[in-house]
Design a protein that fits this description.
This protein has about 325 residues and is an alpha/beta fold. It is built from eleven helices and 14 strands. The protein has two domains: about 1-230, Rossmann fold; about 240-315, Alpha-Beta Plaits. It has helices at about 50-55, 80-85, 105-115, 120-130, 150-160, 180-195, 205-210, 230-235, 255-260, 285-300, 315-325, and strands spanning about 1-15, 20-35, 40-45, 65-70, 75, 85-90, 165-170, 200, 215-220, 225-230, 240-245, 265-275, 280-285, 305-310. Helix 3 (about 105-115) packs across helix 4 (about 120-130) and helix 5 runs parallel beside helix 6 (about 180-195). The protein is globular.
Length: about 325
């Protein structure tokens, strides 16, 4: 059964072009289905239409054409039932939607009253959420004294207060440091796998979408240009040839220049630096030839090659190919 169904959904706005206002489709006749319990990713560049789509599904703005069902309810005709079925979290740097001079518990009590959560149930629910997010000891602490990561936990708890079956997460990790983002991703995964929530998740972070989501849709210019599992999406770029080389040295500009100077290397795609190694991915003309000859070339230049192997296409490769092609 589908938790979210989108049928030819369209939203138009106006923008200035050569001094004149012209209509454009921020969301252009989209069809989409998200299954119950699915953690579904939505990718796209700025202006692709992701947030506009989320806001329509949350009943914050009305569509111009088409329809959508959330938890079986029409987003226009049954907006109140839709709102009762969802929790919405949008990227907020620093937790601006929270009341900083209230404690975590009092924030949750306030939002529970706004969401018509019965008082008796609300207290039990708040206790359970504080425990789930490992915040029981900090429940009486003022939000202004929290780290960014703790504020994100309060916002997630606020989103879950009415126990909604569907969650709309619009860039929930934006503005977070690396450690806090990792923790937030773990929480989202737990919400899906442990609590069975359906999550529609948007992000600019390819890594977290690829690791978290069972299926992914890529939007560009208001349209969905691809939708599938991360593995199947990688087939789109199977013609790209690349190898990954792990060396014991820390890669600097001179080392990267050595790679660029090897015959058959087209470009350095990415570099990851570890504590005692570097992983360098390069696009090549011939993978087998590169695997056979590149290590000897690098060792002659004084580098210690730990391993070399074919590099599988990444979600970023797919994303770049599709969004460039469609613009």
């Amino acid at each position: 059964m589908n938790a979210i169904e989108v049928l030819s959904l369209t939203k138009r706005f106006q923008r200035k072009d050569d001094g004149k206002k012209r209509p454009f489709a921020a969301v252009d006749s989209i069809d989409l289905a998200v299954e119950e319990g699915e953690l579904f990713g939505l990718l796209g560049p700025n202006g692709a239409g992701k947030t506009t789509l989320i806001k329509m599904l949350c009943t914050l703005i009305l569509p111009d054409e088409g329809r959508a069902l959330v938890n079986g309810f029409d987003i226009v005709k049954e907006a109140e039932k839709v709102r009762a079925s969802i929790g919405w979290l949008h990227g907020e740097t620093g937790g601006r939607a929270l009341y900083w001079r209230l404690s975590a518990r009092d924030n949750l009590r306030f939002y529970a009253s706004l969401q018509n959560v019965p008082p008796d149930f609300a207290e039990k629910r708040i206790d359970a959420l504080l425990d789930f997010f490992d915040m029981t000891e900090e429940a009486s602490t003022l939000v202004k004294d929290f780290s960014t990561g703790m504020k994100v936990k309060v916002m997630l708890a606020r989103t879950l207060l009415p126990n909604p079956p569907i969650l709309m997460m619009d860039e929930p990790t934006v503005g977070l440091d690396a450690a806090t983002a990792v923790e937030t991703r773990k929480l989202l995964k737990a919400l899906s796998t442990d609590l069975g929530r359906t999550i529609l998740f948007t992000s600019h972070n390819m890594f977290e979408v690829e690791r978290l989501c069972t299926r992914i849709a890529i939007m560009n210019s208001g349209k969905i240009v691809a939708i599938d599992t991360p593995l199947r999406l990688s087939e789109i770029t199977k013609e790209i040839k690349a190898v990954e080389v792990r060396i014991s040295e820390i890669a600097d500009a001179k080392i990267l220049d050595l790679f660029q100077g090897f015959e058959g290397v087209q470009k350095v795609v990415k570099t990851e630096i570890g504590e005692d190694y570097s992983l360098i991915q390069v696009q090549v003309e011939d993978e087998q030839k590169a695997i056979a000859t590149l290590p000897e070339f690098l060792q002659e230049k004084g580098l210690n090659v730990i391993s070399i192997q074919r590099a599988l296409p990444t979600l970023e490769d797919v994303y770049m190919k599709l969004t460039r092609k469609s613009t």
